[in-house]
Amino acid sequence: MAVLIAVIALLAVMMGIVLVTGRRSRYDGSGDPNTDLQVARSHMDRQRQNGTSFGGTPPF
Question: Could you tell me which residues belong to the region Disordered (predicted)?
Fold first, then answer.
């Protein structure tokens, strides 16, 4: 019985870690989806200007 409780507690902790790290931003660490979108958009625009969004070919 104690083993079962320990396993459930471990799973709960792991799920909490996954949720917290998943919510954190991949771009600036703030976790705000609006700033994430802005950073992603400006990154895409920069790629488009550099012509690197399609593997280095000109962005036509």
Answer: 25-60
36 neighbors 28 (Cβ within 8 angstroms): yes
Contacts of 47 (CB under 8 A, 6+ apart): 53
- Token code pair at residue 37: 């979108």
φ and ψ at 19, to 5 degrees?
Answer: -65, -45
**Quick one: pLDDT at residue 47?**
64
Are 60 and 53 contacting, i.e. CB atoms less than 8 angstroms apart?
no
10-residue block means of pLDDT along the chain (60 residues)?
89 75 53 58 66 54
3-class state of residue 21 by DSSP: helix
- With b for 16 or more beta-carbon neighbours within 10 A and e for fewer, the 31-48 pattern comes to eeeeebeeeeeeeeeeee
